[in-house]
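Wait, can you check?
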Amino acid sequence: MIRIIAILIMFIPGLIAAIGIKLMRDTLFATFYPIFLHSSIQFIIGLILFLAGLAFIGGFIIHRDRKRQKNQQQKRNCYTNGD
């Protein structure tokens, strides 16, 4: 059950980022949605959605790695290998 919730937590921001990419692509190919007042507003909202989804996924991965202390283990290996 917990894994299903975790997959949903990762799926929703990924979907938001995909919608952002679609809005930016549609702006570049001159497909205009009437809900937006201007094409530049459509592109900016798409960029914001893409960055928000990407930031959430990146933050989730960083939080998980710090929780499992994977960053500390990699740093110790770098220093002990003699590099």
